[in-house]
Amino acid sequence: MIDYPPLFQELIDALRLLPSVGPRSAERLALFLLQNPSAVGDRLVGAIQSARQRIHPCVQCGFFAESDLCAVCRDSSRDAQLLCVVEQPGDVLKLEKAGSWRGYYHVLGGRLSPLDDIGPEDLAIAPLLERVKKNPPLEAVLALGADVEGETTALYLTPLLKQSGIRVSRLATGLPAGGGLEYADSVTLGYALSGRQEI
Ligand SMILES: [Zn+2]
Fold it and tell me: Separation of 160 CA from ligand 1 center, angstroms?
């Protein structure tokens, strides 16, 4: 029996590394990319290369940026008294879509997880504390996942942030249990943000 040529199989294997792409979708995508005019494949390759080369973490908050500062940090019309601490850059987009946040953000790059050997030094916690010490906002909102790791991270951060004399709050309950912000719809997230509770 003849199978796909090795390079074709390699393309399928590479596509399978993407989230939500199973063996059949990978095969379909590979066939599409090879059978269609090269414009699609070329554009995809170009877009991946440009994005990987030019998008990097914002030097101030860690969100996606094409220059030193991201679009949020460059927006001086935002409320500098409000800082929202999130786990991942994608969480910023989630909260922006929810539409009710007018402050700035700080992306930790993950959450504390002793079982996975992820400690404070693996996250952007030192830059957060430095940032807050230098320019203390009135309030820091911990918009972390409603699971054990999110809880652990919040418990760790709260006293450290309070040392700068700021108010610390957490999102109201109602977020999907055991998951990060990526599982919450924007309406739920909007409510959770506006109903946040001081801790
Ligand atoms: Zn930024």
Answer: 22
Q: Same CATH fold, 77-170 and 6-54?
A: no
CA of 65 to the centre of ligand 1 (A): 7
Instruction: Express each pLDDT in 150-198 by its tens digit.
Output: 989 999 999 999 998 999 999 876 566 666 777 677 777 777 777 787 8
Question: How much distance in Å is there from the Cα of 55 to the middle of ligand 1?
Answer: 12
Q: How far is the CA of 177 from the centre of ligand 1 (A)?
A: 28
* Architecture of the structural domain at 77-170: 3-Layer(aba) Sandwich (3.40)
pTM: predicted TM-score of the whole model, two decimal places = 0.78
Ligand 1 centroid from CA 58, angstroms: 5
pLDDT tens digits for range 104-160: 999 999 999 988 999 999 999 999 999 999 999 999 999 998 888 998 999 999 999
Ligand 1: distance of its center to the CA of 120 in Å?
20
CA distance 19 to 129: 33
Query: What is the dotted CATH code of the domain comprising 6-54?
Result: 1.10.8.420
